[in-house]
Structure to design on (920 residues):
């Protein structure tokens, strides 16, 4: 196989597993599991972005749920605002012809005119980038406790805004979010499309994984790792640490926002419970368990923990479980579970696998 | 705004501000001795309040409160023994996450012991409807208790740190741990004391506000954040400044009620936090250079 | 007359009441090796921090080839061709030896965030070149067989050399070496001296801070002596060795 493509093998392997899992589940008539798996996949997008930020740029963020919300709520608001009152305006007619607004039926059979989900997606992503830059520029200069508190504060402000604002649905959130049309398919919670939705979510996750892996193995990824290693030395080697940290912050915000947007369409709505600080802390817990800079570990742990949580296995102890995991990992395995001494065999396996996939260590290679 | 209204807001601000100051002082005590920011500080208040409520049904009030304080002190010491003491040179990030995890764990434990029901401690003097008239404003006598006890805490702590051997040992530890150890001070003991002390004042504060604000298992985190904001506002580690900063935040919040919708009031303190962190992390009274040189 | 690669003009920096660097001026000629010596606390590392942009100066100017670089950020100064090593090795401990050097290629390469995320084809050639250049550097510093080892696993002497290899990867015209011989034994110091001479032969100017007098006297073209933040002497090694003020500083006591 062409050396350049070898590094994408793990992604194909995971895709294979994803397919097998679906076949097994559908085969045993337990399609309802697919719903939680799909939701967990979207949460994993957030986790991947956070992993890049924490493990590679070395910045903790206790506010990722805030960006999840910015993505989800913007998308929800835009797609549920009824533009019917303005239907006769010429500008509205133009937008309709361009496909940016469209008519649809709501639950009660009324005709609504709303923004197209694609337009809402673009708007949500732009919102995310803008806010991430505004927050990121001052936040990037902070370290340690200050950084943690600032990101926590950001998440809390978003929560307060969402909880206290009328058109954001206050405590009830926003419902009635239409499906998201994706190349002939639809992202929605409708039971008949469970299987396609499962695959859509996974394609998105693996796409995100692809981009993240590309980044890590690139010149910029190396720069990020060096910043994490020694920020001073990285600066001395000509790396603009502030700019790179900011860029990674914005990138992680985008990952979270995309997760938020699509999960909102999948669930048909979004509420303040997605924006709590507890949610942000859970994302951190998952990244920590997987090993701060371990993308695959983060994905694995995210799927595992989120799935169990969504299935209700933790009962009323849900938050307590995540907190306990966080504590145990930070106390005993600060480098992540998979690097712990007890997991020796797992580590050796991992080394063997990555040796298979990495381009040969010769001097002449170094392709892609 | 009439004078009575103004004074009402003013008093409300001073009252909440003094509680924020107590929480901030709790942060500072632990921070000064250990360099750790204890995110679980807010839980001490709620824990103290809850225990006080439970015990007050069969113990006389002062005894219930005293017992609540003692038990919470024990919890503080337990936290130190189980989670802090044996860590070898942990990174700041690790500590942040550990104390966050701790606060959640404590909160969930309280949830399972006391449910999500709101509990209220009996008013120290009088009842919920008794009021005292001061300068035209009607306030509950509990407000006077809050102000009084906060002032007593501040004064007693001041004397404690200046006059007692233990207090001075703790100050020595925060100033220069190695030198303190060379003088025979057991640094690890000082750490335990600082946790116990912070827990004690937290529990006391939790009991004294319970009649007015009521006590619910998840009120710890918002209180901790406001306390942290005040601590940073005054300059981390500086408890005298914390008192001033607490009053500032309390008054800011109180007067904001006259302008902002109720739902956004909590956003005020968060906004203050972000502004301070972004523009002057050393706080109003902190040493600018010292905070940038500090390896945080 | 060789051109003035680096010009320090009346550079000063205080910490509170302490004048760490006090009105220091000197020039470094292109292609030379200049050493800064002085007792502990004389301000040598502060001087390096000022030149490399890691610390802002209170007053004075730093110029490279006539261009003012005083207020620039460290990464901009490195891009302009001045690179420094650190007194206590600041290697990227969780990266391999090769990767450490590859990071040094950063200022001379271009692939950015977008091209990285999308793994665009033009970046593959650049990565190949980065790898090759890095291997070349490892070769010239005798570190080739450690290329895939973790930087933190290297013995101390090799770690020092790796720091220099990494700095050389940035293609500096001026290399600032902060106590390169610190912690090295006699043989390693000898090798370090040879290395610095080799670096000069490659056309790179060297400014170094050092305590090891034999190294300094051996390889320096010129020496600057600092004491309590001020420059007290400057000249060729023979002149410095005879300078009564310098002798007084190091040996103390009166002189004839």
């Amino acid at each position: 196989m062409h050396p350049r493509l070898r590094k994408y093998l793990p992604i194909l392997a995971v895709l294979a597993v994803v397919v097998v899992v679906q076949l097994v589940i559908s085969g045993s008539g337990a399609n309802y599991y697919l719903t939680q798996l799909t939701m967990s996949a979207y949460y994993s997008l957030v986790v991947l972005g956070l992993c890049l930020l924490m493990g590679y740029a070395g910045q903790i963020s206790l506010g990722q749920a805030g960006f999840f919300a910015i993505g989800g709520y913007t998308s929800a608001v835009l797609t549920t605002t009824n533009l019917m009152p303005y239907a006769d305006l010429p500008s509205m007619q133009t937008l309709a012809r361009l496909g940016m607004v469209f008519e649809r039926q709501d639950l009660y059979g009324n005709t609504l005119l709303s923004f197209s989900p694609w337009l809402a997606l673009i708007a949500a992503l732009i919102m995310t980038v803008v806010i991430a830059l505004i927050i990121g520029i001052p936040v990037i200069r902070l370290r340690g406790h200050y950084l943690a508190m600032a990101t926590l504060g950001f998440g809390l402000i978003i929560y307060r805004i969402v909880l206290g604002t009328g058109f954001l649905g206050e405590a009830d959130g926003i419902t009635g979010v239409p499906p998201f049309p994706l190349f002939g398919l639809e992202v929605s919670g409708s039971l008949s499309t469970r299987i396609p939705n499962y695959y859509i979510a996974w394609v998105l996750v693996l796409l995100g994984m692809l981009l993240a892996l590309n980044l890590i193995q690139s010149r910029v990824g190396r720069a990020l790792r060096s910043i994490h290693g020694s920020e001073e030395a990285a600066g001395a080697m000509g790396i603009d640490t502030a700019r790179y940290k900011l860029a990674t912050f914005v990138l992680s915000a985008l990952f979270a926002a995309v997760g938020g947007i699509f999960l909102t369409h999948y669930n048909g709505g979004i509420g303040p419970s997605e924006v709590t600080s507890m949610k942000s802390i859970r994302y951190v817990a998952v990244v920590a368990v997987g090993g701060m800079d371990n993308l695959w570990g983060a994905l694995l742990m995210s799927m595992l923990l989120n799935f169990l949580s969504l299935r209700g296995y933790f009962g009323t102890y849900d938050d307590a479980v995540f907190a306990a995991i966080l504590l145990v990992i930070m106390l005993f395995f600060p480098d992540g579970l998979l690097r712990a001494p007890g997991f020796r065999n797992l580590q050796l396996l991992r080394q063997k696998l990555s040796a298979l996939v990495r381009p040969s260590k010769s001097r002449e290679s170094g392709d892609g | 705004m009439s004078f009575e209204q103004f004074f009402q807001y003013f008093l409300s601000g001073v009252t909440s501000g003094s509680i924020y100051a107590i929480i901030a002082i709790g942060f500072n005590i632990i921070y000064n001795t250990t360099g750790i920011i204890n995110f679980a500080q807010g839980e001490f208040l709620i824990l103290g309040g809850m225990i006080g409520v439970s015990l007050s049904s069969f113990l006389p009030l002062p005894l219930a409160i005293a017992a609540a304080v003692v038990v919470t002190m024990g919890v503080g010491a337990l936290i130190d023994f189980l989670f802090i003491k044996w860590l070898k040179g942990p990174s700041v990030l690790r500590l942040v996450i550990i104390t966050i995890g701790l606060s959640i764990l404590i909160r969930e434990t309280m949830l399972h012991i006391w449910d999500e029901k709101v509990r209220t401690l009996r008013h120290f003097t009088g009842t919920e409807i008794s009021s005292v008239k001061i300068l035209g404003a009607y306030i509950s006598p509990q407000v006077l208790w809050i102000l009084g006890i906060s002032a007593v805490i501040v004064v007693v702590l001041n004397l404690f740190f200046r006059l007692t051997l233990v207090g001075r040992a703790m100050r020595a530890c925060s100033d220069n741990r190695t030198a303190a150890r060379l003088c025979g001070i057991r640094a690890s003991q000082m750490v335990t004391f600082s946790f116990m002390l912070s827990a004690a004042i937290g529990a006391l504060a939790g009991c004294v506000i319970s009649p007015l604000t009521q006590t619910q298992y998840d009120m710890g985190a918002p209180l901790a954040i406001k306390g942290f904001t005040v601590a940073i506002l005054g300059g981390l580690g500086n408890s005298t400044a914390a008192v001033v900063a607490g009053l500032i935040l309390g008054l800011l919040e109180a007067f904001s009620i006259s302008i902002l919708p109720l739902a956004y009031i909590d956003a005020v303190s968060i906004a203050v936090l972000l502004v301070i962190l972004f523009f002057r992390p050393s706080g109003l009274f902190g040493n600018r250079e010292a905070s940038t040189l500090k390896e945080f | 007359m060789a051109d003035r690669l680096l010009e320090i003009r009346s550079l000063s920096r205080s910490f509170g009441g302490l004048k760490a660097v006090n009105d220091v001026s000197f020039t470094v000629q292109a292609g030379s090796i200049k050493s800064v010596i002085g007792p502990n606390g004389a301000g040598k590392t502060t001087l390096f921090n000022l030149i490399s942009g890691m610390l802002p100066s209170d007053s004075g100017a730093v110029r490279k080839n006539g261009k003012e670089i005083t207020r620039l950020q460290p990464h901009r100064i490195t891009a302009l061709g001045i690179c420094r090593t650190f007194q206590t090795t600041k290697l990227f401990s969780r990266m391999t030896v090769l990767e450490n050097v590859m990071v040094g290629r950063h200022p001379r390469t271009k692939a950015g965030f977008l091209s990285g995320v999308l793994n665009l084809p033009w970046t593959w050639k650049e990565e190949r070149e980065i790898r090759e250049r890095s291997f070349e550097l490892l070769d010239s510093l005798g570190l080739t067989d450690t290329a895939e080892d973790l930087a933190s696993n290297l013995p101390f002497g090799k770690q020092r050399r790796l720091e220099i290899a990494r700095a050389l990867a940035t293609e500096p015209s001026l290399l600032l070496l902060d106590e390169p011989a610190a912690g090295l034994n006699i043989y390693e110091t000898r090798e370090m001296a040879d290395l610095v001479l080799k670096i000069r032969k490659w056309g790179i100017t060297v400014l170094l801070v050092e305590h090891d007098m034999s190294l300094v006297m051996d390889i320096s073209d010129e020496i600057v002596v600092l004491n309590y933040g001020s420059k007290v002497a400057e000249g060729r090694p023979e002149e410095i060795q005879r300078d009564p003020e310098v002798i007084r500083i190091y040996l103390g006591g009166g002189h004839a």
